[in-house]
Design brief:
Layout (H helix, E strand, L loop, with lengths): L2 H42 L24 H28 L3 H26 L4 H24 L2 H5 L4 E2 L6 H23 L10 H28 L4 H30 L8 H31 E2 L11
Parallel strand pairs: 1-2
């Protein structure tokens, strides 16, 4: 076989790896986002105990999906699909990606989706205890963050970037991004606990409501400071400014959805069943929260990738 043919085959394999590795994580991330929406629909319709067994539903793999069983079993089917996609993604990255930390992140994603499935089963077997249900919802967000991270670090744009932009200001923007991501995640934990603390026909606990409102204020301040800092310091770096601007826009939408969810939820205990306005706005609030988290994670990863320290007390470079 000639050298030209060998080089052509290597180039073709490299291009195929770049194409698959860049798109497969995006597919898994999109499927996970859909799974989060499906889970929020289960909670909003109070359908968590539509069937009392697990992993089967009423003793069947494919039961007749009527009433609340449509939401609960549909959620399980989406979760199964996400699990299978995660297995494929993990195997692919373990075989093809040479970066050890990426392979470890893929393995973490696999263990996270397995744990998520087991927690989902426990919520049914233990009759929806608050601690397990909140942990199930929180791990969903953490898993989503992980696959979004994999999508970012396996994208072609990631490979083209080097840490060539000097940090500016006293506080490095990278650490602001990291603090913003941590703040958003803590708020998601509070939100998950609040959401599972009462069914649609009961009032939400005042203490958790106040904690969630305080968390919203903290997220607003932290994310706004971070995004404005990025936009002011690096206005010509679209690699950073685009996720910063999107995060700000999503934050504004999320605050409006949060207010709408509170107003519609306050009236729900007087309704004969979960009504569509409350369900739609609440699910949108959960979904937008996941998008805020994902965008903040993207901004954080990108800032560590392309911003380099100018301080003698920090190690240069990034990922």
């Amino acid at each position: 076989m000639s050298t030209v043919v060998v080089n052509h085959q290597r180039l073709w394999r490299r291009k195929m790896f770049g194409w698959v590795s860049g798109r497969l994580p995006v597919v898994v991330a999109c499927a996970t986002f859909f799974l989060i929406i499906a889970g929020a629909l289960v909670t909003s319709h109070d359908a968590g105990l539509a069937t009392s067994d697990w992993p089967l539903s009423n003793g069947q793999f494919f039961p007749r999906m009527v009433g609340n069983l449509f939401w609960e079993h549909g959620h399980r089917m989406v979760a199964t699909t996400v699990g299978l996609l995660t297995i494929v993604l993990t195997i692919y990255l373990l075989r093809k990606d040479k970066r050890r930390w990426v392979r470890r992140l893929a393995v973490f994603a696999l263990f996270a989706v397995i744990a998520q499935g087991l927690l989902g089963g426990l919520t049914v077997k233990l009759m929806l205890p608050l601690a397990v249900s909140a942990a199930h919802a929180t791990l969903a967000q953490l898993f989503f963050c992980t696959v979004v991270g994999l999508a970012v670090v396996t994208s072609p744009s990631w490979e083209r970037r080097l840490a060539t932009i000097d940090e500016q200001g006293i506080v490095p923007a990278r650490y602001l991004c990291l603090a913003a991501a941590a703040t958003v995640f803590l708020q998601l934990i509070i939100g998950a606990t609040l959401r599972h603390s009462a069914t649609w026909d009961r009032q939400l606990p005042t203490e958790l409501l106040l904690a969630h409102a305080g968390g919203a204020l903290a997220v607003t301040l932290m994310l706004a400071i971070t995004a404005v800092t990025i936009l002011r310091r690096h206005p010509n770096q679209i690699f950073l400014t685009r996720p910063a601007a999107i995060a700000l826009a999503l934050l504004g939408i999320q605050l409006l959805l949060g207010l709408g969810a509170y107003v519609t939820r306050q009236a729900s205990p007087n309704d004969p069943q979960p009504l569509n306005p409350m369900v739609a706005i609440t699910v949108a609030h959960v979904a937008c929260g996941a998008l805020v988290f994902a965008t903040t994670i993207i901004l954080t990863l990108r800032s560590f990738k392309c911003l380099r320290s100018t301080s003698a007390f920090e190690f240069a470079g990034g990922f």
